[in-house]
Structures are given as structure tokens and as C-alpha cells.
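Students often ask why inverse folding is considered easier than folding. One informal answer: many sequences map to the same fold, so there is more than one right answer. In these notes we will look at a single instance of the problem. The structure comes first.
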């Protein structure tokens, strides 16, 4: 490809407004599912018309961890397992921003597992997207907390004997208030779920089953990316509202997907504000709101009772 064609390709890419085209080509292998999930996120942001300055993307370490480097938003490529605490700090400092975490199965639920369950427990206002390829892709295909039993990994060459996490069940038990699962074949559904998550508050967890072609697929003799798409096409069923206790995935078994959980619950910051406002009363400066916003909120509350003097008491 000539330089002129290359420049044109970068400019004309439909996602060039959302991706750092100057960083392309990306590092992901042919057939890897991570890029599809990134495009879905960009599409959801595009469809929602969000202000770029109000979105931040945080990722940890791994092939999935590289996402932060390719998106044209404020982003942070943090340390292994620590995307959620960094995202939490960012959210607390800037409650007006939508904070999206991109994390691999190993990053999120192995080394970062403790942060994951506590952010869910607190209903921290984050959108957490887990690219679950059942393996530590970046480091050579070791077993992770989600690797199905009997699957081959570099650390379990005779097949995995550990009991895996079912992530929707774990997230549900820990307190997540929005939980969905899709495969990377189901791009429109992923986009829709990310759109819903952007539009709500609380801990939203979206798991995307994706192929790691170079390690998991190859080591388990499952073919290439296209074979993975065929598997997802044939064996993934939509089960909206399914009991998360029933959605575990066996090696090359059926994949239950859909929106499993969507329940309203005060976020961490709302709970902080309610508690302190109850105890401290009017002297409490609402966290995440400046005095002007607080004043406006008071006026809005008074409005309808004639308190602001301009509406005549809701008549
Ligand atoms: C503290 C620490 N321990 C271990 C590593 C090595 N390491 C880098 S990426 C990775 C696994 C990533 O796996 P996953 O999160 O599933 O992402 P994937 O590469 O599969 O997308 C590991 C163990 C590290 N970078 N830092
Ligand atoms: S090693 Fe696996 S997870 Fe990493 S980029 Fe390649 S296919 Fe994707
Ligand atoms: Mg992985």
C-alpha cells in the first residue's frame, strides 16, 4: 500500500474519530476477537453522541490491556489487574465522566479479581468490559480463572483440572447491577449492551467471549477465527434474564448469552451522599457536585412548592 493510500485508509476509516489511526496497525493477531469489541465500543459511543471529553478508557495488562492505547479518548494503560482501582479513582475525581474498563479474563478475574468483586459490591459507576478468551493470551496461553475444565493450556498440558469461574454468576453474587454476555460474533448486541451501560449508572459488566486464535484455538486444535465464529453461531443462544447460576460454559459447550441482570440500585457515590446528607444535614457538601450545582438542585427541589418564586407553586 502506498503512503497516499495508507493515509486515505486511516482518514476514511469509519471509526477514525474514535481510534488513534496513527497507531495502526494494531498488535492483535489475525482472527483475534479483541478488535471487534473495540469497534463495538466505538460504535456505541458514536451512536450515543457522547462528548469525547466525557469518556475515559482504562485497561490493565495483556493483549486486551492494549485497548487503552488505540482509543482516541483520555485513556490509561495501567498495571496488571489494576484497571478497576485506577478507574475507580478517576470516577471519584471526575463523577461527570463515563469510565470504561477493558480487561482480559486473566487481568480482571485472576490478579485483579479482588478489585472486580469489590467494585461490583459497591455498585461503583463503571462500565467493565471483559474480553474472555479463556487464556492469558499475551504471556503464552496459560490457564486462567475462566479456562473450561479439560481445555489445554501451556500450564495444563494434560487438560485443565481447575473449576472455572462463571463470570456473570460471580458478578451477580458480588452485586453488579447490569450483566450481559455476548460473543464477538454478536457485534450488534455488544454495541447495544455498551450503549445501555453508557446510558445507566452503577456497575455494568459485559463479558464478551472471544477467540485467542494464536494460543487457545491452536493449542486446543479448534481451528482459526472463522471456526470460532462458526462455533459461536451454532452454539450460542440468547437467554435474556437467565438465572446466572445456570450460565457456566463447558469446553466447547453451549454458550448462554443475553442481558441477564439489569436492576436499579444507588451507586457508590449516591450511597455516600445519602448517608452523609442524612447524618450531617445541610452542612454537607454533596460529593461530586460543586456549590452552584448544589444550589440549582435546591432550587429544583423548592420548585413546585413556590420556593423559587417564579412558578407559582406548580400551578
Ligand atoms: C504483576 C504482573 N504479573 C504478571 C504479569 C504478566 N502478564 C502480562 S499479561 C498477562 C496475562 C493477560 O491475560 P488476560 O488478562 O486474559 O489478557 P489477554 O492477553 O488474554 O487479552 C500476564 C500474566 C504482569 N505483566 N504483571
Ligand atoms: S495472542 Fe491471542 S489474545 Fe493475544 S492478540 Fe493474539 S489471538 Fe489475540
Ligand atoms: Mg485472556
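Output (designed amino acids):
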Amino acid at each position: 500500500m502506498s503512503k497516499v493510500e495508507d493515509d486515505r485508509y486511516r482518514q476514511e476509516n469509519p471509526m477514525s474519530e474514535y481510534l488513534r489511526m496513527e497507531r495502526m496497525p494494531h498488535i492483535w493477531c489475525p482472527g483475534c476477537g479483541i478488535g471487534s469489541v473495540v469497534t463495538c465500543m466505538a460504535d456505541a459511543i458514536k451512536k450515543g453522541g457522547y462528548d469525547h471529553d466525557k469518556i475515559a478508557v482504562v485497561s490493565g495488562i495483556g493483549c486486551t490491556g492494549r485497548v487503552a492505547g488505540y482509543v482516541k479518548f483520555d485513556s490509561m494503560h495501567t498495571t496488571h489487574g489494576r484497571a478497576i482501582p485506577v478507574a475507580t479513582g478517576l470516577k471519584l475525581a471526575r463523577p461527570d465522566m463515563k469510565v470504561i474498563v477493558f480487561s482480559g479474563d486473566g487481568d480482571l478475574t485472576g490478579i485483579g479479581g479482588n478489585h472486580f468483586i469489590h467494585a461490583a459490591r459497591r455498585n461503583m459507576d463503571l462500565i467493565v468490559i471483559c474480553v474472555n478468551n479463556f487464556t492469558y493470551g499475551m504471556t503464552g496461553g496459560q490457564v486462567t480463572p475462566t479456562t473450561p475444565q479439560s481445555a489445554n493450556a501451556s500450564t495444563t498440558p494434560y487438560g485443565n483440572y481447575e473449576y472455572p469461574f462463571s463470570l456473570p454468576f460471580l458478578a451477580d453474587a458480588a452485586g453488579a447491577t447490569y450483566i450481559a454476555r455476548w460473543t464477538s460474533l454478536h457485534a450488534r448486541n455488544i454495541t447495544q449492551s455498551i450503549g445501555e451501560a453508557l446510558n445507566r449508572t452503577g456497575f455494568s459488566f459485559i463479558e464478551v467471549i472471544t477467540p485467542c486464535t494464536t494460543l487457545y484455538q491452536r493449542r486446543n486444535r479448534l481451528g482459526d477465527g472463522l471456526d470460532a465464529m462458526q462455533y459461536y453461531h451454532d452454539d450460542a443462544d440468547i437467554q435474556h434474564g437467565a438465572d446466572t447460576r445456570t450460565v457456566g460454559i463447558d469446553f466447547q459447550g453451549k454458550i448462554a448469552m443475553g442481558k441477564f441482570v439489569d436492576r436499579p440500585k444507588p451507586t457508590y457515590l449516591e450511597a455516600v451522599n445519602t448517608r452523609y446528607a442524612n447524618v450531617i444535614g445541610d452542612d454537607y457538601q454533596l460529593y461530586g457536585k460543586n456549590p452552584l450545582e448544589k444550589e440549582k438542585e435546591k432550587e429544583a427541589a423548592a420548585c413546585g412548592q413556590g420556593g423559587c418564586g417564579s412558578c407559582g407553586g406548580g400551578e
